[in-house]
Design goal:
With about 120 residues, the chain is mainly α. The chain has helices at about 5-20, 30-50, 55-85, 90-120. The longest helix is centred in the last third of the chain and has 31 residues, at about 90-120. It starts with a helix and ends with a helix.
Length: about 120
């Protein structure tokens, strides 16, 4: 997957998180967990875009690490929502699957970038 396609994919994921957060319950748990999910879920796309503008291979790798961390945090909040039955289970499952795939792509991209850096 090229960087343009991954920018689009992470942006669509962010939009899905935003849409999901809009329908979370308007109570303390919905607001607090929703804010955390909103922040980390949208950060995935923003930080990936920043990684693509990295000035060096080392900066690119470091920023991809941030993307991985934000995606993992997003997955954590989705798991909490799922286990506590706070939101629509079907939507949560779809977001979790996409988040898992994004994490796997980031891990693979980091490994590849590190290997390329070593071979230079």
């Amino acid at each position: 997957m090229n960087s343009h396609a991954l920018k689009r994919r992470t942006k669509e994921f962010a939009k899905g998180v935003i849409e999901f957060c809009r329908v979370l319950p308007n109570n303390r748990e919905g607001r607090l967990i929703g804010n955390q999910l909103f922040s980390s879920g949208t950060s995935v796309a923003a930080n990936y875009r920043a990684a693509c503008r990295g000035r060096s291979r080392a900066e690119f790798i470091a920023k991809l690490g941030i993307v991985e961390e934000e995606a993992d945090e997003t997955l954590f909040w989705l798991e909490i929502i799922d286990e506590m039955e706070i939101g629509d289970t079907n939507v949560v499952q779809l977001l979790m699957e996409e988040c898992d795939e994004i994490i796997a792509i980031m891990v693979s991209s980091i490994k590849t970038a590190r290997q390329e850096k070593k071979s230079r």
